[in-house]
Amino acid sequence: MTPSSSSPRSPWLLLLTFALLLLGAPASANSSWKVADLHLRASVIYGVDCTPTLCVGAGTGATPPEGIGSAGVIVSSRNPLGGASAWKVTFFPRDPHLTPQLRDVSCPNARLCVAVANKGTVLFSRRPMGGRSAWKVTHLPAGSLRNVACPSTRFCLIAGNRGRFFTSTDPTGGPTAWRPIQLEEGFAPVGLSCAGRAVCVVVGGYSIFAGGEPLGVAPWATSSDFGPTTLPWKGVACPGRYLCLVGGEAGIYISQAPTVADSWALATVPGAETPTTAVDCASPEACLFATESGYAFSSSSPSDASAWSRSRLPIGVGSPFGLSCPGTDFCVATGRNGLIATSGSPFR
């Protein structure tokens, strides 16, 4: 018997099989993500928000000798793609009257940013890059404030521990400008997003809360049938009143009617089997989320689970806490140790 004619070609068959497998996998082209190292080794930048001309991140930092978590830190840039030297770092050291462990920030435009911290602390600035003196402090009757969303200069919503929320149409107006709202007692928020006043969505525990205008009067729709496999929630993005995305342990959940209870469905995105850590959308046609495995997934059609493409995040930034995409031309991700990841083409 003559030798099988297929034997010499077996390596080619293996290569062909491997190529076919790659065609069936999500795209993972050379990553457009770069890293800027701000040399804040004991810091965590929990939240970041960008306008087309300004990016601001908020978190905790260390200023010796007090140690990790002892101070708040604001990082800001008008050229976020310009590397570490383009970012300004502002510390808020511990003092007898203020321990600003910052957790989130929202900037409706480049002339106003609102940040939230522990002990009911709200900081706002009309010159976010103006240093510590440019940030004014307001104290609200609450414990730790966890998230803030300001879709415009005339509307902000703050989410705090124990279901304590606050809304304002004048976020620079001091304590009396904030109206309290009590949601579910014991509720601990981990993510908040508002598509104007029409829709705000907050996630935490086993629940997703969604409410519209007027907040605090109309009932909030609640989806509470999520089990441990969906947790922990790690972020929410609402680019429009008819589209919101929530990231969790099992992946991305999507709703096209977020104020309707139990309208959320899991999008099984190929290659995104590890938990989501952050999510944001530049528009309903440009959404991006990051995973614990160190990948960013972007899509121009987020409701289609097969329409997401994948890129590798820089080593060390792999599981970002904060993510902001003010447009399709750049995104910024923040996390531990003062590392900031940026991409000038996140949706290509």
Notes on the protein architecture:
By secondary structure, the chain is mostly beta strands. It has one domain: 7 Propeller (Methylamine Dehydrogenase, Chain H), CATH 2.130.10. The chain is built from one helix and 28 strands. A four-stranded antiparallel β-sheet has the order 1-28-27-26, with no helix packed on it. A hairpin with a 3-residue loop joins β14 (191-195) and β15. The longest helix is centred in the first third of the chain and has 15 residues, at 10-24. It is globular and about 50 Å long.
CATH H-level superfamily: YVTN repeat-like/Quinoprotein amine dehydrogenase
**Sheet bearing the most strands, described?**
4 strands, antiparallel
What is the structural class?
A: mainly beta
Number of β-strand runs = 28
Mean pLDDT: 84
Question: Tell me, what is the CATH class?
Answer: Mainly Beta
Radius of gyration: 21 Å
User: How many structural domains are formed by the residues?
Assistant: 1
Percentage of residues in DSSP E strands: 35-45%
Strand arrangement, major sheet: 1-28-27-26
CATH level-3 fold name:
Methylamine Dehydrogenase, Chain H
Globally, the shape reads globular
How many helices?
Answer: 1
Topology pattern, helix = H, strand = E: HEEEEEEEEEEEEEEEEEEEEEEEEEEEE
Task: State the helicity in percent bands.
Answer: under 10%
N-end to C-end Cα span:
54 Å
CATH architecture: 7 Propeller
